[in-house]
Design brief:
The protein is mainly alpha-helical. The chain has one domain (7-96). Helices cover 74% and strands 0% of the residues. It has 5 helices and no strands. It has helices at 7-27, 33-41, 45-51, 55-74, 82-96. Helix 1 packs across helix 2.
């Protein structure tokens, strides 16, 4: 059974994820990330749990987004040795953080 989300739901999920990324950047990984992110965006916990059942799912969503962004950057890597390309991909990864 799949869940279909409205445009509003998708925006709320994106806002929760953005708030979580901000929390992670400011505070590191702390307990109650989902609850704190929901408070920031003005979302009640019942709705927040429609998208992420627990903190771990929120963190995994962040890593999935980061991996997808990094994958798109790999296509833009300059030609060169494997060492040069490795340095370039690591720089791209850090730029995404």
């Amino acid at each position: 059974m799949s869940t279909t989300f409205s445009t509003s739901d998708i925006r709320t999920r994106q806002r929760l994820l953005a708030a979580a990324v901000e929390r992670l950047a400011q505070e590191g990984l702390q307990p109650n990330l989902l609850e704190r992110s929901a408070q920031v965006v003005g979302c009640d916990m019942e709705r927040a749990r429609m998208f992420f059942r627990r903190d771990e799912e929120l963190v995994l969503a962040f890593y999935a987004r980061l991996a997808a962004e990094l994958e798109s950057k790999v296509l833009e890597l300059p030609a060169g040795t494997i060492g040069d390309r490795f340095v370039a991909v690591m720089q791209a990864k850090f730029a995404l953080l």
